[in-house]
Amino acid sequence: MRCRLRFALIVWVSALGSGVGFAQPRFPTPKTYPPDAATLKQIEMKTAELRKAVANTGPDVQVYRKAAEWIVRHGDWLQKDSAQQTLRIINAGFERAQAARTGQSPWWNVRGKPIILGYQSRVDGSTQPYRVTIPTGYKPGTDKKWRIDIVLHGRDSTINEVKFLHAAEIAKPGTSQEAIILEPYGRGNNAYRWAGEADVFESVADFLSRPIWDISQADLSHKMGRPVLRGFSMGGAGTWHIGLHHPFQFSVIGPGAGFTTTRGYIRNLPPKLPEYQEKCLHIYDAVDYAENAFNVPVVAYSGEKDAQKAAADNIENVLKSFSEPLRFTHLIAPGLEHRMPPEWQAKAEAEYKRMMALPAPKDRRVRFVTYTPRYGHAGWATIHALDKQYEKAVLDGTWDKSGMQIRTSNIRALGITTDAVEMGGIASLTVDGQSVSVPKVGSSSNAKPFILMKDTKGKWHASPPGERSEHLLKWSDTQGQLQGPIDDAFGAEFRVLGPSRAGQSPTTDASIAASLSRFGKEWDKWMRGTLPMGDKLTGNLVLFGDPRSNPLIAKVLPKLPITWTQDKLIVNGITYDARTHVPVLIYPNPLNPKRYVVLNSGHTFHDADFRGTNALLYPRLGDWAVLKPTPTKDDPAAVEVVVAGLFDENWQFSKKSQ
Known about the structure:
With 658 residues, the chain is an alpha/beta fold. It folds into 3 domains: 254 residues, 3-Layer(aba) Sandwich (Rossmann fold); 96 residues, no CATH class; 160 residues, no CATH class. 26% of the residues lie in helices and 22% in strands. The chain is built from 15 helices and 28 strands. α2 packs antiparallel against α3. It starts with 5 loop residues before the first strand and ends in a 13-residue tail after the last strand.
């Protein structure tokens, strides 16, 4: 039986339970411990040798080179022994390179302690590390079912690739464990948002693709089952976020502390943000997705005296009025502040096992909430488009041999996945009380998903993929969702192309150049990759310049909703002086409508936000804006936001703009 809410220990702290918390910790600028000149020269010389040694090797080796290079280029000497750690990592890199040249991968034979693996990210082509601990009793090809735990690390102001790798290199074999532990690096301290979120899923996919399993991917999926997702502090925030946005991906989620809402966590946040910013808070505020706990068991943990207990309290307060059955436990450690000692981890582990032993729901019901199609994967259905973006949308559906019944709220397009079609087919289909004809989808061996769309009169229709009305929907059904905002372009594959010659105005040229330079530096420093440059069209295309300085801008401009000449810029019906104003926007790419085109913008939050709490990493400009350069000596990329806003659900300017 599934109970509504189960509490291991209930201890209420009124100042936190109110939701108006003071949980945000302070993050002072960490002290650095740069090496002396002789040691730095040694590191640089050995790194140059390592660069040659790892040529033509894979990511498992390249991560060591990258760690040595990045700590020098950013001066990330954040621990007293950072230089010694770097030298050790370089030596470990030489050992791996030597083994790789002979076709060996001895690190795969390590059991009971973390090993370092790497993969090449599709987002920016960078090499990213992750750690895996394989149990001492694991043997490939056996029938035993091994659980995978994805463990998200907490915020660490001194973390970098060297520290992350070094911890694995010096670790000693531990006691027997029952699960394979996978620890994503997550590109540092971003609370697993944007490319940090992609890092979690890419590292898991890379690990499961490895030949160590010695079984097919289909057998692997059956043997491993869905993983457990857990973490503490920032890792808890990441678990709340990823677990409730993707509830069908996990067997249990175990968030400890963290935060689940922007407002109430960030100190001194204005009582009312511009509407386009306020709406975008719904992208990551996990509290808005609390009802998705219906689809995945939750084992939350808090210290009684931890200010970050507010993370779980906020979720519970929402669920008090939720009438559906839940599998939810909140473990509260009496007298503890911001800690999760081993004995409480053991109690959480016991709860994971208890939750996973509960019988699965007998029906095939989905009851799913989202505020954006970015997070629209709902089990056997996928929400592709909303009536109103950033407002609550609900999908409630069941199906069995007799048919499928779906109820929706604020949804205008959804897909019925292959799994639903294959598992016995669909005899009849009712959506919001309307009987809908089921399209032919083929036999179970070659069944394909179909699309449900609601027309302007509210009537639902079904059709196979590819037979939908392009002008109705703000999405792409094959390569992913297209819904904005600007920052959404940088959570998937993207390429950047800057100006190739002088543009229309020295003022805007200088501002655009400074913005591109800032984007490159911030991506390198905080997202731990080099900006991928070029006009490759397989990913999102990010263009800096104007119609004169960047030929690709001139090429796509006729199909963008703005007018931009040397003298005038027309945005949302208003004319601006093109010599002193710059447009930024995100839009479906006319050269590849399954991807975005972005003009003159990287992430819309910047260095100060990366250095502060990661809750600050929310969009600042929505889908579009007009900026007026206001450069200073200290900040050549400074601008005044003249106007900004969100496109409507059909990629048109809304009547109301900010």
